[in-house]
Amino acid sequence: MIIVELLKKWSTLDIEAGCDEVGRGCLCGPVVAAAVILDNNFNQNLVNDSKKLSFKVRSELDDYIKSNVKAYAIAEISPELIDQHNILNASIHAMHLALDQLPIRPEFIVVDGNKFHPYNFIPHQCVVKGDSRVLSIACASILAKNYRDQLMIRLHEEFPHYGWNKNMGYATHQHREALMKFGPTIHHRKSFRLIYDME
After folding, report:
1. Position 2 confidence tier, pLDDT thresholds 50, 70, 90
2. How far apart are CA 40 and CA 110, in angstroms?
């Protein structure tokens, strides 16, 4: 297990919320975002970018994070709204919805990536690869990914041909082949290029 040390704070302000989203590149399902405000005593050096962690470790950290942070919230945007507003705007809107649900108003927001719309007159900073640099963003990435993975596993039971329990909606060969054979479901993003000629 690789142990990393991420920044506990990006700003000098006391109440800082970290935001991240998952599912932008998927062909189906919602985009999911989380916002996390750390407790000053939060200490878990296994937390890292969710993409670098195993399913088992993420699940264990999910429980720890929810029990030991000052506040957290998770929000999702449906495929229909993604199609209407494009994936970038939908991802940012999901982060705004997560921030809306926090029981504590943050004084500063730190966001993974390089795009964000101003939120509620609160200063913010975008951090490229923030989920591997800032602890609150990494925690948000874990909560969002676990939430979305569990959702896709449940949807797989209704639509088993697409392999969502393994690919989580991403464009694997199996997923593309199933789309060519069975067509898109109500959960697919119609604005995405779902089917193309495969070699």
Report:
1. low
2. 16
| Neighbour order of strands in the sheet with 16-22 | 71-77, 31-37, 16-22, 108-112, 124-127
By the 8 A CB rule, do 31 and 169 touch? no
Provide the residue ranges of all domains of the chain, joining segments of one domain with +. Answer: 16-182
Architecture of domain 16-182: 2-Layer Sandwich (3.30)
- Cβ within 8 Å of residue 102, ≥6 positions away: 17, 35, 37, 71, 72, 73
pLDDT band at 3 (very low <50, low <70, confident <90, very high): low
Q: How far apart are the first and last CA of the chain?
A: 38
H or E segment at 63? helix 55-68
One-letter amino acid for residue 114 of the chain: N
